[in-house]
Amino acid sequence: MTLPLLATAVIASLTLSVSSAHASDCTGANLLPALASVPTAKAATLCLLNNERSARGLLPLSAEPELESAASSYAQTMVKGRFFGHVSPGGQTITERLAAYVGSEGDWATGENLAFGSNALATPSAIVKSWMTSDGHRENILSADFADAGIGIAGGTPSGGLPALSATYVAAFGTHYESASTASPVRASASSATPVAARTAKKRISAKKRAQISKRCHRVARRAKGSKKTRTMRYDRCMRKELRLAKG
Fold first, then answer.
1. Cβ–Cβ < 8 Å for 243, 213
2. pTM of the predicted model as reported, rounded to 2 decimal places
3. How far is the C-alpha of 27 from the C-alpha of 10, rounded, in Å?
4. Structure letter (DSSP) for residue 24
5. What's the rounded Cα separation, in Å, for the pair 235 and 242?
């Protein structure tokens, strides 16, 4: 059984101050996808996500073709179907959309961020800005549990925006573990569920147990002195140690 790491969907419809310095090294970050080209906008979005991770000492996300294909298809489906959400009107879930990436063996975790906007709010920079100001989306972007990502962008919006002036974004996140011993720590939050190992040859740790460990490590991290980066590193060390002990 798997529980996908989901974030509550956000509509990029509020006035956002976009930092040009933040996007200065990501080509096309401040341009509409229709002007920069969709491939350029996708690359800029991933670049911005990795800038956020790098600033906090996290490893960058690698572009993954199967995640990108699924994300692109879903962005187009939402625009054409005039709906916005992590579950389609037909009942398709993130796990089903990412079936090609997940496969049938091994441990894995997946997540998804959604957004749409028009005019200045449809640029990669504005979309990533909106995600970073939302706890659930920010958690997915900065999760040490994810190693891969795929960006999907479709011209237009679920509400009928003009393709030349608006865009709908999907960011699909994921990771595969060769074995339980190589699994990265899992972050649990109020807006995200803890992934459960699909299959493993070693001792499984239940979702409830992982959540208890994560909560305990969050308390440990909060007591640490120093910057947010220092507390994040303290949390990661705690999770590695506790999960190793739990697996025996």
1. yes
2. 0.67
3. 24
4. T
5. 10
